[in-house]
Amino acid sequence: MKYSVLLKLYLFVLKIWAAEAQDNDYNVQEFSTYKCHCGGQCPREDGRCPADAQCDKGWFGLRCQYQDLLNILNAKITTQPKRLNIEWLPDGNDKTCNDNTNFKSITIKWLDQISIPLTFLRIVVSDPASLSTLEFRLVEEGDTDITPCHRPVYTLKGNNTMDIRCKDNIIITSLVLFGNLSFLCSVYISGGRNVAYRQSAMQTSNYTSLYEAAFAVDGNTDSNLEHNSCSHTNEETSPKWNLTLQSNYVINRIILFNRDNFNFVRLQGFVIQTFDSNRNVIEVYNDKNLAAQRIYQVNLKGNVDHPVNMISISLEGRDKILTLCEVETYGECPSGFWSLPCNKRCPTSCPDDCDRDTGACNNVCIGRSNPPQCDADCIDGRWGIHCRNDCSNECTENICHVRKGLCDQECDCYNNPPYCKTDVYKFSLEFVSFGIGCAACGVLCILVILALALSKTIVCQCKQRSRLEPELLFGKERNHYNEHKETSDDHFYEPVLSCRNNIGANPTVAIRKDTTEYAEA
Fold it and tell me: Where is the signal peptide (predicted)?
């Protein structure tokens, strides 16, 4: 009896462990169709990465299946002010973080005229309160203006991680991240998941059994035809290679690996067509490169309302041979679906907009307090995500910027809004120091007047010896951030000390909006 109870308990625990190993959301068989990017550690059949594993460079997210375009493609990272040490940002390690509190912005630009389809950004910080302060602007392909992400959707992925998704399908050349970057650890720019791996492929003919259609989706990007990892048709009229996906996906990007030893020019002029599950054509791409490429990066327009189920690659004309060494197709779930195979529907509480990894409703409100509606403003004294942060006591009446937490009214006993970190006592010492400098300047003015008396030229200018650095606040509107309207950068008024011409007079304080010039004597 005793052993029977122990056996039942053991089986119960084993059953729970097995359920947890599958996350209760995925079928074990599904993971034969996903390539391992868990730093070489994929011991389980369900594809889960070990807890201590770090994704391969260029990969992130659920089971390391999302490609990071910040690492994979040729991107240049610059900061304002300029800083040479920025290696911690793209290293894929969320535990290495920024140690410079002076960062104003980070710009990411793809070189060699590369443009990318933008789906979402993942931002990791060391202080959760800083997440609501972060924003980004982007430059769309064919444009030079910096514009905001239209209709952004925010998703929390734990306390320190947030995804920002642009609902509109756009292709960009660069983006700028700004806000409180003091606690920034990692930024990932999603290129989607390779949904072509080990999917059903067919072609119009096989050169031999060593060059069947399936070799183009075996995960091997070796472009040497002699290594038997490429598809290859006979010479024929309009050869075609078709790929049928296990589910419907929003496809944004396709990468073709051409053969690289000889005859690679054969692929020039290829045509890509995408189809829905009813075999209606969604999009057609015609290769117009003037020269054949070893690797083709093809951006598609990918529409969440028109998911793709089949992809066709062909050459038009007589006496053509189609060779593909690997086809990578990057996409994600269409609106209303989630899970890696995108075969689970979003819950009824958010039927069209749930997290594509977990199925949870995207209900993050920044500067608002009532998810998922997000239409109730923060009460005075609160700010941030779901208004869960308290405004600083240094802010007058504890009122602060609902998104950034800065004192956008006035300071109590502090003189440098919106940050309110320099106290009045310190300011008074600076003021006295300034007065001494002004008096010394007055003596100098008398000597100059005497020296120039004969020429009747009077030059007397007193410049402030020390002053506070002007500060900026990105936008002073408090209650319109979820509407995503543009706000201009406003200088906050700050006291500027001025020295008057009458020698010996007490220095006065002039309030000026332009904080970039010194006050004149």
Answer: 1-21
